[in-house]
């Protein structure tokens, strides 16, 4: 009875460790730069934070600028502040979707029904304010995306290969974790049985 309890306890600790390892990790990925006419397009903007910075006060602004035309001021597309997003008036009104995460590390947007006029420069501006005990610290991050609109999707085998490799790697890691769990479980059971035999 004591042996089974110890095995279950060790297994629970191991599972807790594996769950901790499987928690989501922020990875700064570049955005796609080619859109297809009439289809939705996600503009990826990732701004990772350290664990102690997650409670920062964050403001996000998205801007659009016409390509090769610096005379026209940038169009303010979207503002996100105090858990509230505001899609501003302009050519993107009714075609924007917020794709960001709750912790505001992923602050991406999606443009619906892409047109040729959507080609140009997009700016993702992030302002974070960290309130420490004795002072307040602000950080500004800006990411630029150049978007090109094509009539048809271009054949890119690299994206397909990358997706296949990602799934293969996930399957391999899952299988490896299961093997490790079984191995540890059997090793703990065997050591407890030996300890019990020695006690008798």
UniProtKB/TrEMBL annotation:
Domain (Ig-like) ranges: 24-146
UniProt keyword annotation of Acetylation present: no
Family annotation (SUPFAM superfamilies): Immunoglobulin
Location(s), subcellular: Cell membrane
Name of this protein: Sodium channel regulatory subunit beta-3
GO CC annotations, alphabetized: voltage-gated sodium channel complex
Annotated signal sequence range: 1-24
Summary of subunit composition and partner proteins: A voltage-gated sodium (Nav) channel consists of an ion-conducting pore-forming alpha subunit functional on its own that is regulated by one or more beta subunits. Forms homodimers and homotrimers. SCN3B is non-covalently associated with alpha subunits and induces the formation of alpha subunit oligomers, including trimers. Interacts with SCN5A/Nav1.5; regulatory subunit of SCN5A/Nav1.5. Interacts with SCN7A/Nav2.1; probable regulatory subunit of SCN7A/Nav2.1. Interacts with SCN10A; regulatory subunit of SCN10A/Nav1.8.
């Amino acid at each position: 009875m004591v042996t089974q309890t110890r095995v279950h306890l060790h297994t629970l600790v191991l599972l807790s460790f594996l769950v901790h390892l499987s928690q989501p990790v922020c990875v700064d990925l570049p955005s796609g730069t080619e859109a297809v006419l009439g289809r939705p397009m996600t503009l990826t903007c990732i701004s990772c934070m350290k664990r102690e910075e997650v409670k920062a006060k964050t403001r996000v602004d998205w801007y659009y600028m016409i390509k090769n035309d610096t005379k026209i001021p940038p169009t303010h597309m979207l503002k996100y502040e105090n858990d509230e997003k505001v899609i501003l008036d302009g050519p993107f009104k009714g075609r924007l979707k917020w794709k960001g995460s709750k912790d505001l590390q992923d602050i991406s947007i999606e443009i619906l029904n892409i047109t040729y006029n959507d080609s140009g420069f997009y700016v993702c501006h992030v302002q974070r304010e960290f309130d420490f005990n004795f002072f307040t610290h602000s950080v500004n991050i800006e990411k630029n995306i150049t978007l090109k609109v094509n009539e048809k999707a271009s054949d890119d085998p690299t994206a397909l290969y990358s997706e296949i490799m990602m799934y293969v790697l996930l399957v391999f890691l899952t299988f490896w974790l299961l093997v490790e769990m079984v191995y540890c479980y059997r090793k703990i059971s065997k050591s407890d049985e030996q300890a019990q035999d020695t006690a008798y």
